[in-house]
Amino acid sequence: MIQELAGITQGVLATFGVQIDDVKFLKEPMHKTSTPLCVIVGIVGKDGERKGVFSFEYQQSFAKNVLQAMLGGYEVDLFSEMGISALLELSNMLGGNMLGVVAPQAVTTPPTAVFGQNMKTLLNVLECYKMVFIMQNSSFSIGISIV
Amino acid sequence: MDKNTEIQVIQSFIRSMCNVFSTLTEKKLVPRGVEQSDTLVVKVSGVVVIVSFSGLFSGRLLVSMPKELTGIIYKGLGGENPSDDDLLLAANEFGNMVAGNAVTEINNIIKGANIRLSPPSSFIGDDLVFFNFKMSAHNILLDAENLTIRLNVALREEK
Question: Over 90: is that where the pLDDT of A136 sits?
């Protein structure tokens, strides 16, 4: 399943002209973040039973490249309203596309972006599957933890 | 979302926060007031927990507090001398209890609300910045032990 999700992500990124060089898969005992900039999207089952968290963890250089690709080459400050809105929109789109595979009966919650240098996090106490997308010298990770 | 529903939702979160805090710590949490937030950005330091929800309307609860207050909550949960990892777990537990109690009340008083929660996520750090997404938010400041807890509730009506 995780490879299918990686394929979905690469497909979405390709629509903006972003090509991924390599993908790595990790499994971690709890869901934490690895970058100062992260977008969190909750997963909520309609019956209240299935629930979880998607994390979209952007290295700043990756985020800048993706933004430029999304905005047709136009350079925008990553932390401006437009920059953050675009990243939230991309994360929302990726979460929505992956949800059909992960939990078709569930819905996603509105995304929240977080930025904090040296922050410590605990996004979910459940085991987390991570996909690390590598492009040139930057990377982007997606974490999923769901019960 | 009409204004009355919005007020009921915000009041449920405030009541739940005061009740859960007082049950865990045997200390009183006093609300200072509610303000409509005119910015999409929340900047805080200390310990933060967010819990998202979805149903008739969706949104998220954000609670930020100093480490000292999270330590008091941790003690109320039965622990001592917390590490940062312990504080993250305590914040998760606190956020889950506050959101859970509030949502139970909301689902009882608002017909067809059917609000469901995502798992809580917590953060520790200085100068943390949280960005809302197409949602209006309310800020509520509450005092306990000469320290301040911030409750930020962002809401969006589902179409």
Answer: no
